[in-house]
Specification:
With about 325 residues, this protein is an alpha/beta fold. Helix content is about 45%, strand content about 20%. The longest helix has 21 residues, at about 245-265. The chain is globular.
Length: about 325
């Protein structure tokens, strides 16, 4: 049996898929099983998956009806047999030693989760970067520090894909289906279950910045998922990590401001106004907590105050500023 299962959810990524799969199959660490979950692709992605299954005995392909990223990841988790599991998104690619670094970090430190850093790359970038500093540093956290470091450490990100996990952590954990920002609460759960975690500065994952991504393009109702997923974290923390609530509340404040800005930039429709009113109502409900939180950045706190006390004046000044900036080029 392989030591690592690598799960790649696949949906309509024919332009990027071969780059992703080649980077995995060319890993210096070779004791792995690769599960490709074709999530109902309508382009040639499914055929590409089948081609790679024919080329390598390491590759297993699951073809399923489209259910979204979380559904595909969950299908991979349920098929995994190895003691460790990692995820790579199908439009990204990885450096040749990434899983070697992750596996060594877990084994050498007796950890449940190990993570590497990542580099954002452009949509048309297909080549791994030569990094100037090849020295790898490790930070090891025991169970009293794991959750706090997830919240405050700039080397640990909530994304699913730059990590290696003990498969047993997923015994009662799955990604929420039908959601974006699906790793917000899931990653938190996994770190809360971990007895020890390792974070490295090794930039082994190349994250492709796709302008069509739902998290980057103009407002859609799915953007609101970030609030419900963050609220799940807060609700759990009230019981299991009340001393760390301020850190997540500060993150919630940032999400509120980001959503309001997206809504102000969205087409002015009745639906957009309804969503904006809903977000403002939530800000008002949380206003006391958000304003008093010392962890919140000053500019975010000022924006929250303005949105709550004089939202129309805030919106007008924002639009005037945006118009002036446009005129000035």
């Amino acid at each position: 049996m392989a030591e690592i299962t690598i799960v790649v959810p696949v949906y309509n990524v024919e332009k990027f898929l071969k780059c992703c799969l080649d980077s995995i199959l060319n890993q210096s660490f070779q004791d792995f099983q690769l599960i490709l979950v074709n999530d109902g692709s309508t382009d040639n992605s499914g055929q590409i998956c089948d081609e790679y299954q024919k080329k390598s005995e390491k590759v297993t392909v699951i073809h399923k009806k489209n259910g979204g990223l979380s559904s595909a990841r969950n299908a991979g988790i349920e098929s995994a047999k190895a003691p460790y599991i990692g995820f790579v998104d199908s439009d990204d690619y990885i450096e040749k030693d990434m899983f070697q670094v992750l596996y060594a970090a877990i084994k050498n430190h007796g950890a449940d989760i190990a993570s590497v850093d990542y580099l954002p790359v452009s949509e048309n970038d297909f080549t791994a970067k030569d990094l100037e500093d090849s020295t790898i540093s490790y930070e090891v956290f025991d169970e009293t520090e794991v959750v706090s470091q997830l919240l405050v450490n700039e080397k640990i990100h909530r994304c699913a894909w730059n990590k290696l996990y003990k498969l047993e952590l997923f015994e009662n954990v799955r990604y929420p289906e039908g959601k974006v920002f699906e790793d917000t609460f899931t990653t938190y759960q996994l770190y809360r279950l971990a007895k020890k975690a390792v974070a490295t500065n090794y930039k082994g994952y190349f994250y492709r910045q796709n302008d069509a991504s739902i998290t980057r393009k103009s407002f859609t109702p799915k953007n609101l998922d970030v609030l419900s997923e963050t609220q799940k974290v807060l609700t759990d923390m009230e019981v299991n990590a009340p001393n760390l609530l301020e850190f997540e509340q500060a993150r919630l404040a940032e999400h509120y401001v980001e959503l309001v800005m997206k809504l102000l930039n969205a087409p002015k429709t009745k639906e957009t106004k309804k969503y904006l009113d809903d977000v403002l109502r939530k800000i008002k409900n949380d206003y006391g907590m958000l304003r008093q939180n010392k962890r919140t950045k000053k500019k975010i706190r000022r924006a929250i105050v303005a949105m709550n006390i004089a939202p129309h004046a805030f919106f007008m000044s924002y639009r005037i500023f945006k118009k002036i900036r446009g005129i000035m080029g």
